[in-house]
Amino acid sequence: MTRRTLLRAATALAAACLGATIFRPARAAGPGLSTRLAGRPDGGLPITILPPANRAAPHPALIFSPGYGGRPSGFIRLVAPWVEAGFLLLLPEHLDSFARGAPYRPSFADLERYAELRIADIDAMLTALPDLAARAGARVVPARVGLGGHSFGAWTAAVIAGATVCFPGGQQKSFADPRPAAFFLLAAPPVPPGADARHPFQGLAPASFGALTRPLLLIDGTRDNGPGGYRHRLAAYELSPPGHKYLGIVREGTHMTLAGIAPAGDAPLGALAARALADVHALTLPFWQGFVAGRQESIAWLNGPAPYAIDPASFIFARRLA
């Protein structure tokens, strides 16, 4: 792949994250397993596996991709309720993690390489999913897997969901993978006005999202950073085909507190951030349970009257149904 292949797809997104609070652990990861997936660069891909309490029965699985610089321990506040609800959770530590030596100010060539490696990381994890679960003494239902991500991880998830990567000059390429059943984008990549297929922003243009036909949940915050603010980060929700598309907007949510990461890293969340994180959990749990675990009652709850667990004072909820 040439240097320009995924350059614009990663540059602004990583830069936005670099301007935000540095990732630090929220709290200890608990009884998880740290392992490595062979065949990936730099000694293999480090993965934290968080299995549910009952490991006897097969479980649905979730993969959550951190943003640039991030590592699994920074997202425990966000993902812990998913594990408690019965999902097996896998958190990769991509090569662009600061803990693995990624630069705080990466070059364009660095970002292009990291974007390519992220897509390949998720492909390798999906292929190795039964083996990875077995390492934690658990079993999975391979056909029931969801993929989510934060910031650069949301870009990764969107591209694997089918968002077409547009290259300067008009060429396009799909990296869609049919295996995940549903996708969660947290602090999603922006598509500002003026972006088009010949002049994409972060590799994305308004036409990129026409193939996003699978269930998708996008959550952002009104104080998210980056070009144009949060409104330009809603493109995957607004421009994808209708049908099982869900949107949450956290009032006063920032790029990092959306994921339950406090400004001081391991400090307790403030009252507003804690309320917003509770709203994120109130929406992500039925989304995963409905579209990954296959619980029809959860889908009916999402599609019915405005969910009662969502606090309208701190959270805006919208849907685009079939």
Explain this structure to me?
By secondary structure, the protein is an alpha/beta fold. The protein has a single domain, classed as 3-Layer(aba) Sandwich (Rossmann fold). Helices cover 28% and strands 21% of the residues. The termini are far apart. 51% of the residues are buried. The model is unreliable at 1-30 (pLDDT under 50).
Task: Offer a few descriptive terms.
nine-stranded mixed beta sheet; alpha/beta; 8 helices; single chain; two-stranded antiparallel ribbon; 322 residues; Rossmann fold
Round the mean pLDDT to the nearest integer and report it: 84
Distance between the termini: 37 Å
The number of distinct structural domains comes to 1
CATH superfamily: Alpha/Beta hydrolase fold, catalytic domain
Number of distinct helices: 8
* CATH classification, class level: Alpha Beta
Rg computed from alpha carbons, rounded to a whole number of angstroms: 18 Å
Query: Which stretches are poorly predicted, pLDDT < 50 over at least 5 residues?
Result: 1-30
Secondary-structure-derived class: alpha/beta
Summarize, please.
The chain has helices spanning 7-18, 76-84, 108-127, 129-135, 152-161, 235-238, 271-291, 296-303, and strands at residues 33-37, 45-50, 58-65, 88-92, 139-150, 165-166, 172-173, 182-186, 216-223, 245-254, 315-320.
Topology, pairings included?
Blueprint: H1 7-18, E1 33-37, E2 45-50, E3 58-65, H2 76-84, E4 88-92, H3 108-127, H4 129-135, E5 139-150, H5 152-161, E6 165-166, E7 172-173, E8 182-186, E9 216-223, H6 235-238, E10 245-254, H7 271-291, H8 296-303, E11 315-320
Parallel strand pairs: 3-4, 3-5, 5-8, 8-9, 9-10
Antiparallel strand pairs: 1-2, 2-4, 6-7, 10-11
Helix pairs in contact: 1-3, 7-8
